[in-house]
Design goal:
InterPro entries: Ant_C, BRO_N_domain. It comes from Eubacterium maltosivorans. Pfam families: ANT (PF03374), Bro-N (PF02498). Helices cover about 45% and strands about 20% of the residues. With about 250 residues, the chain is an alpha+beta fold. The chain folds into two domains: about 110 residues, no CATH class; about 90 residues, no CATH class. A hairpin with a 2-residue loop joins strand 6 and strand 7. The radius of gyration is 31 Å and the shape is rod-shaped. The termini are far apart.
């Protein structure tokens, strides 16, 4: 039995060409499906989402004596492209595939499709895999942050705290952040105790103060105090620091 191409056209999704092979296997034109689902770079989308695409040589539509190489997808890869699409219309495309395209193939004869409930199960399974992948990525980010906190030991510098906020999408810097901490009562405002934690800041466990001695000149020894943000403080300020400051 010679391979046959059928065309299905919808005003929303355009043309989708389908190849029915001699053994009854049905393949879908990869470029048509990717274009219908709104992928700008159809070749890249197929390479990224699909696993079992194949090339087939088919008669040229304008000249049956000529042959044309086309790339086709099995049913499983069709669903993977649907799942990977970011367009809201992907749901409508899925419905069109199930309600129009596949029944049309069955009506034409020679196409034995898996039971719709099996196809739906595959579709749902792929969605679950994508959801789990996203959850694992989020968990990996949290674990990375936790490891950063562990490495920080007693705390991080104010500059590092400002960069953590920047990494979280907050537009701020060290000077601006510390000014906000003073206004909110986390740091002292007097010149003598500038940038030293207030009693409130210490009671909340947000800071530690490192003390060291240094000699600016012979015979003179001074005490240097450096405020650092504890792991608890880092999590606290990432939560309460405003995303936008007036």
């Amino acid at each position: 039995m010679q391979a046959m191409i059928q065309e299905f056209v919808d005003e929303r999704f355009g043309r989708v060409r389908v190849l029915e092979e001699g053994d009854g296997t049905v393949l879908f034109c990869g470029a048509d499906v990717a274009r219908a689902l709104g992928y700008r770079n159809t070749r890249s989308a197929i390479k990224r989402h699909c696993r079992y695409g194949v090339k087939r040589t088919v008669p040229h539509p304008q000249n049956p004596r000529r042959l044309l190489d086309m790339f086709f997808l099995p049913e499983g890869d069709l669903y993977r492209l649907i799942i990977g699409s970011k367009l809201p219309s992907a749901v409508a495309f899925e419905k069109w595939v199930f309600d129009v395209l596949l029944p049309g193939l069955r009506a034409a004869g020679g196409y034995t499709v898996r039971r719709p409930e099996i196809s739906a199960l595959l579709f749902e399974k792929e969605r679950q895999v994508q959801a789990l992948t996203a959850q694992l990525a989020e968990r990996k980010d949290l674990e990375l942050f936790a490891s950063q906190l562990m490495r920080a030991g007693g705390g991080v510098s104010m500059l590092r705290m400002a960069r953590l906020l920047q990494d979280a999408g907050v537009r701020t810097g060290r000077t601006r952040m510390m000014a906000w901490m003073r206004r909110q009562g986390y740091l002292c405002r007097s010149k003598k105790e500038d940038n030293i934690p207030t009693q409130r800041g210490m009671a909340l466990g947000l800071f530690v103060v490192e003390e060291s001695l240094y000699a600016p000149r012979p015979g003179v020894v001074l005490l240097n105090q450096t405020t650092r943000v504890t792991p608890k403080g880092q999590q606290y300020f990432l939560k309460v620091y405003p995303r936008e400051l007036d």
